[in-house]
Amino acid sequence: MSTARTPSGDRLGRLLNLVPYLLARPGILISEAAADLGVTGKQLREDLELLWVCGLPGYGPGDLIDMAIDGDHVTISHDAGMSKPLRLNPDEALALVVALRMLAETPGIGTRDAIERALAKIENAAGDLADAPVTVRMPANQKRLAEVRAAVESGHALRLTYYTSARDETTDRVVDPMRMLMVGGFNYLEAWCRRAEATRLFRIDRIDAFAELDEPSAPPVEAVPHDVTGGVFRPGPELPLVTLRVGRGGRWITEYYPVEQVVKDAPEWLVTMRVTDLGWAQRFLTGQGRDVTVIGPPELLERIRAQAATALDQYAAPQALAADAPAGR
């Protein structure tokens, strides 16, 4: 049995076709519809559940697609206008043009031809509106991004000077480039790192310097690309587990970072999360103030206590110097 994940683009296309298909076949058997659409009955039922909460902006009861499922039969009772041809207003057309132009400039996109075809169609339909003075630029460090992309396309190994924020250190390493990609709004170089002897993701804005080597890029057979569908950081049981007690002002941590457990004991929550490095956790948590209290592990608590003691000593030093200064100075 295949366990491959259905691409989101395939599902979107199927959902867009599903409403007019079902409108033309009221009361159709779900198994018959699934066979026509080339999916399993389970997948079609999942599509129907998703479709049931889709509709027009406002998303009130009268705006959503509605249907009746009677045993193994399904009938669309409200199509929310999806039976009509799509007509974009000027703002919607311009938003699509800008979004597609952004995608076309994104490194690592494997469907660039399809994006450019869709962009051409929308620009043609939008007419003069598509020529509006809108410039699409990717996030900062464009020059470095273009330089790294050109080096990767040359097929050579690279020597990097790279800043690792988790350990707050800069290192030199030789890498065998594999691909460029964008995840979570950041551009990355994915490469086999000879220093770590593993596949690594290098954020472009953290590459301080690089040089193209004469030797070709030659990732070994064990250089497997990362699965970044869920983001770059994939916490596992091998990483340190940190326990926090957070107040109302620190609850954003549970939304911004992957957490393992949240116990909502008002007014404070008990939060457990995996971190790549205790050094990173120390720097991050000491800046959170009273809204976050570290419960464990003991090593992290000791690090933070030592850092706090050092900071207090620095505050005390100027006072001692002032006390020893001659009068009148």
From TrEMBL:
It comes from the Bacteria. Residues 241-312 form the WCX domain. This is Protein pafC. Coiled coil: none annotated. InterPro entries: CBASS_pafABC_assoc_protein, PafC-like, PafC_HTH, WCX_dom, WYL_dom. PANTHER family: PROTEIN PAFC, PTHR34580. Residues 10-123 form the PafC HTH domain. Residues 145-209 form the WYL domain. It comes from Actinoplanes utahensis.
